[in-house]
Amino acid sequence: MINIVLPVDFGDKTDQLVEGAIKFAKQLNGRIYLIHVAPSDIGFAIGDMGFQYFPEVEANEIREELVQLNKIEQRILAHDIECEHLLKQGLAKDIIIEYAKAKNADYIVMGSHGRSGIYDVFVGSLTKGLTKSSHIPVLVLPIHD
Questions:
Q1: What does the alpha-carbon distance between residue 100 and residue 97 come to, in Å, rounded to a whole number?
Q2: Is 25 exposed, middle or buried (0-12, 13-18, 19+ CB in 10 A)?
Q3: Is the pTM of this model over 0.70?
Q4: Structural domain boundaries enclosing 135
Q5: For 57-104, how does the pLDDT look when each residue is reduced to its tens digit (9 = 90+)?
Q6: Could you give the number of structural domains in the chain?
Q7: What angle do CA 110, 82, 2 make, to 5 degrees?
Q8: How far lies 76's CA from each of 30, 72, 84, 87, 119, in Å?
Q9: Which CATH number goes with the domain that contains 119?
């Protein structure tokens, strides 16, 4: 069976990415390992007293993201594709590569909005970073409006 790691960010194009990964997994008799990497600074805010940490904000956000991951996992399972999920906090590129290695992934499936140039300078591109750093093939699905 082919192992596919599918990172999701819950953005407005996540549904398109998941549909593409489902199609790919069906063609290859694949299993999907769904992952969401939350930033480490979820519970931090800058206020009158400088940086403050609010653990309840972080806990609520993580809980909501787990609900979203569960929904996506159920959607994948409904297509008779094996699936499991993981939510971790940290640096997305490193965590995704580490997870893909741990799951003996054959592919990492990512989406690309097709932006480039100045957008990448200011925002960066996780997909671009993974294609440069990963020894595991990265399948990039075009996700356009």
A1: 5
A2: buried
A3: yes
A4: 2-141
A5: 667 788 899 999 999 999 999 999 999 999 998 889 999 999 999 999
A6: 1
A7: 60
A8: 11, 6, 9, 17, 31
A9: 3.40.50.620
